[in-house]
């Protein structure tokens, strides 16, 4: 199936906005011709025969929420939902934008209106056609505060969003900025310019829903019907989620296997042992205990590469001792008390790279020159001095706690960070273990965690906006996005609004970097490092690829 080429999209906007055309040309990759692959029982890959009907087993943890695109709160849920659903766009392994359900996404001259044309013939797995209404209704449902969706804030720039922010309002109210022209045409009016919109629609919250979802959304979230390369066969809580190939699928991600079995593990070491014994096909995160040896382990295939995951510690704005001038001094002191280079080298065995900004090395706009005041550099003497200044305002009391989920591989690095802080500042600092990812995320989302906590961003779409607006803008606070520390800064919000108006990517990056300079002063989160991809597969696996997020490209997995 062919996709519209980049030159045709650039021509569509050049007459009205040369700058916007340059932005589109810089931001979007040339679109490929995709030929659907024929289904067969096996094929040759090198000298090995692989089965196109093989079920691939992979590791996971229990998703925090039901499987609704607008309510996804963690990577575990993202992995499932993005296999069951397709969206308007997808991204290549290098992060270039490619059309999926969309035939074209055409902006007006100042990026305040977009016309979205859909491909004809796309369907959900129950046979219902994917139409403009499928998208408009799903976006409105997710944006409407009455429906309590965690991804609501990403729709904030669409006209009518503000009118839907009454938690007790009409659950069926629609975004006024969406106009369904016909089955394949959706007009979108924004309340302000947003040049990142063609990228933003790649976020999981922008996925479409079939009409049956609205009959019982809770039931649908437990057994979603999508339009992606897989269908959900079963979900056994705390055990497994089984996906099987969608034989009605006509999109670009044709499954090269018969399905994916997501197995829930509470301990990565157990998962690694299963990988070594051949009882697990792919492990997407190597446990810390094996990082120094896995690349030479003859029982597995090892993988490592740079990834887009930014890791941090969030210190909530309302945490005692961390507001006002006292809080500013303590945040800076804690940041300088963390020996990132030593921890990433000695504890994490080079599996991460110390952070220099709030993005990631694979994202446009990344910089290693923003930290002119050295707040991300280990400096024990300066940290002690800043802590003493904070004590002069209000003496420190209590324990600095860093919360994390025990079913992830976090204990060793959290303990190392806590010990670094403790040794430099002379305070009691320690990790606080919460049993499961689901319990941890629930406490974060409900603002009951009462401590600093591990955090990070791995944006659904590879654009600075996906990290900065989603992580720190006021619109993403209060449970409406990823701003889980509830940081609010009018100056930061102004920078985000300014960047959204700039249709030249280089100009917008300069503005985003001004905003990052402000974050380096306010430190709503303490940047730690960028996580690399460190993964392994059984020797039976033949094709293992990773997507633009550094996560497994499930539809491409094959094994002998």
If you had to describe this structure to a student in words, what would you say it looks like?
With 560 residues, the protein is an alpha+beta fold. The protein is built from 15 helices and 21 strands. It has helices at 6-14, 18-27, 75-84, 132-143, 197-200, 217-222, 268-277, 324-336, 340-347, 380-393, 411-425, 437-445, 464-472, 490-501, 505-522, and strands at residues 42-45, 48-51, 55-60, 89-91, 97-99, 102-107, 113-118, 178-182, 185-189, 230-236, 240-245, 259-264, 282-283, 300-314, 352-354, 400-405, 429-434, 452-457, 525-538, 541-543, 558-559. Strands 13, 14, 15, 16, 17, 18 and 19 form a 7-stranded mixed beta sheet that branches. A 4-stranded mixed beta sheet has the order 3-12-11-10, with helices on one face. A hairpin with a 2-residue loop joins strand 1 and strand 2 (48-51). Helix 8 (324-336) runs antiparallel to helix 10, helix 9 (340-347) runs antiparallel to helix 11 and helix 13 (464-472) runs antiparallel to helix 14. Residues 1-46 have low confidence and may be disordered.
Summarize this, please?
The chain is α+β, with helices and mostly antiparallel strands. It has helices at 6-14, 18-27, 75-84, 132-143, 197-200, 217-222, 268-277, 324-336, 340-347, 380-393, 411-425, 437-445, 464-472, 490-501, 505-522, and strands spanning 42-45, 48-51, 55-60, 89-91, 97-99, 102-107, 113-118, 178-182, 185-189, 230-236, 240-245, 259-264, 282-283, 300-314, 352-354, 400-405, 429-434, 452-457, 525-538, 541-543, 558-559.
């Amino acid at each position: 199936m062919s996709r519209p080429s980049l030159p045709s999209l650039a021509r569509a906007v050049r007459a009205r906005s040369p700058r916007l055309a340059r932005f589109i040309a810089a931001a979007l990759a040339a679109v490929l011709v995709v030929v659907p692959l024929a289904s067969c029982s096996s094929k040759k890959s090198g000298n090995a025969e692989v089965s196109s009907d093989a079920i691939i087993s992979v590791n996971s943890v229990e998703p925090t929420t039901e499987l609704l695109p607008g309510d996804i709160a963690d990577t575990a849920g993202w992995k499932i939902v993005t296999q069951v659903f397709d969206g308007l766009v997808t991204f290549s392994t290098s992060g270039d934008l490619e059309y999926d359900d969309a035939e074209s996404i055409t902006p007006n001259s100042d990026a305040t209106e977009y016309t979205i044309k859909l491909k004809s013939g796309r369907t959900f797995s129950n046979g219902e056609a994917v139409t403009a209404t499928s998208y408009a209704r799903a976006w409105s449902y997710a944006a409407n505060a009455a429906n309590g969706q965690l991804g609501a804030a990403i729709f904030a720039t669409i006209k009518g969003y503000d009118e839907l922010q009454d938690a007790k309002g009409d659950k069926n109210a629609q975004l006024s900025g969406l106009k369904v022209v016909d089955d394949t045409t959706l007009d979108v009016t924004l309340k302000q310019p947003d040049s990142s919109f063609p990228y933003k629609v790649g976020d999981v919250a922008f996925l479409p829903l079939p009409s049956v979802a609205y009959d019982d959304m809770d039931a649908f979230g437990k057994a979603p019907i999508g339009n992606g390369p897989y269908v959900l066969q079963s979900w056994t809580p705390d055990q497994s989620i089984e996906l099987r190939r969608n034989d009605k699928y006509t999109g670009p991600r044709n499954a090269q296997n018969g399905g994916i079995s997501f197995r829930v593990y509470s301990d990565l070491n157990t998962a690694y042992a299963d990988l070594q014994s051949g009882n697990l096909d792919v492990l997407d995160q190597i446990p810390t205990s094996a990082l120094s040896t896995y690349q030479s382990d003859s029982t597995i295939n090892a993988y490592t590469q740079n990834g887009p995951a930014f890791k941090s510690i969030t210190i909530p704005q309302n945490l005692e001792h961390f507001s006002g001038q006292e809080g500013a001094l303590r945040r800076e002191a804690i940041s300088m008390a963390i020996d990132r280079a030593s921890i990433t080298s000695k504890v994490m065995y080079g599996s991460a790279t110390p952070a220099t900004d709030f993005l990631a090395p694979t994202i446009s706009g990344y910089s290693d020159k923003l930290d002119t005041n050295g707040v991300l550099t280990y400096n024990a003497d300066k940290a002690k001095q800043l802590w003493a200044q904070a004590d002069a305002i209000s003496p420190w009391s209590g324990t600095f706690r860093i919360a994390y989920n025990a079913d992830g591989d976090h204990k060793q690095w959290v303990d190392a960070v806590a010990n670094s802080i403790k040794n430099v500042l002379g305070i009691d600092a320690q990790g606080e273990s919460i049993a499961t990812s689901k319990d941890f995320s629930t406490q974060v989302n409900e603002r009951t965690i009462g401590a600093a906590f591990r955090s990070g961003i791995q944006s659904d779409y590879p654009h600075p906006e996906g990290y900065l607006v989603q992580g720190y803008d006021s619109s993403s606070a209060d449970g409406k996005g990823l701003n889980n520390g509830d940081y609010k800064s009018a100056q930061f919000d102004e920078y985000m609004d300014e960047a959204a108006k700039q249709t030249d990517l280089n100009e917008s990056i300069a503005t985003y970097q001004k905003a990052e300079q402000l974050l380096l002063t306010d430190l709503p989160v303490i940047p730690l490092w960028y996580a690399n991809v460190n993964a392994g597969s059984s020797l039976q696996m033949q094709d293992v690829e990773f997507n633009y997020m550094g996560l497994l490209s499930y539809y491409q997995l094959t094994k002998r």
